[in-house]
Amino acid sequence: MISIKSPREIELMDIAGSIVARVHKKMKEVIKPGISTLEINRIAEEVIRENGATPSFKNYQGFPCAVCTSVNDMLVHGIPDHTILKDGDIITVDVGACYKGYHGDSGWTYTVGNVTDPKILKLLEVTEEALYKGLEQVKPGNHVGDISNAIQTYVESFGYGLPADYTGHGIGRSVHEDPYVPNVGKAGTMELLKKGMCIAVEPMVFMGSARCYTLPDGWGVKSYDHSLAAHYEHTVAITDDGYKILTKED
Known about the structure:
- The protein is of the alpha+beta class.
- It has helices at 7-30, 37-50, 118-135, 144-156, and strands spanning 54-55, 67-71, 74-76, 90-99, 102-111, 168-170, 177-181, 198-201, 204-206, 212-214, 221-223, 229-231, 234-238, 243-245.
- It has one domain: Creatinase/methionine aminopeptidase superfamily (Creatine Amidinohydrolase), CATH 3.90.230.
- 28% of the residues lie in helices and 25% in strands.
- It is globular and about 45 Å long.
- It starts with 6 loop residues before the first helix and ends in a 5-residue tail after the last strand.
């Protein structure tokens, strides 16, 4: 069931989202060669709690950490551990924060050290741009499928892979709510978008094939062909004539 949020609920989600944005601001400072993903997790959780929130992902369906850290060919749901980041890596940090019962959620892909390979930089550029192509379709009267189709059309024009099983989602009192927001789909289909809906839009893209598999830990998702992965996500609220990004600093 899709919930329509009140202005007060969106205000609380805006605060949760701004806390998520502060974590990402901190990530830009600390992600560099030599840091471990476990240390990234520690720092992120510290920022979340210092700002009066709790980590949305910690203990969610058994996930053990505050954030997901997905390195290189891992698409999503990487569990922080003692992996040390190296010069030339890329890493997605997916952050959720819960403030007074309401969630904000945003993932972002970062370069580690000196990344100059134009193919890697193009993957990141296209995936981030795909997020905004999807967001252009977020307005009352459009459908979820309009978001999906915009992302798919743009990403696949570059020959990249879009795993269909991993999607965006509604968000509010729960970190995952209806509706699901796929990254592949047909325009004009699926749920009608209405003012007050809050959704997380998040293209997740492989440089190569869309085929992927889940690690034995039951969480991390990697590409079969070891191609690199990128992931960009914002939580937004649907307004009278468009959307407001909630996961950015005030």
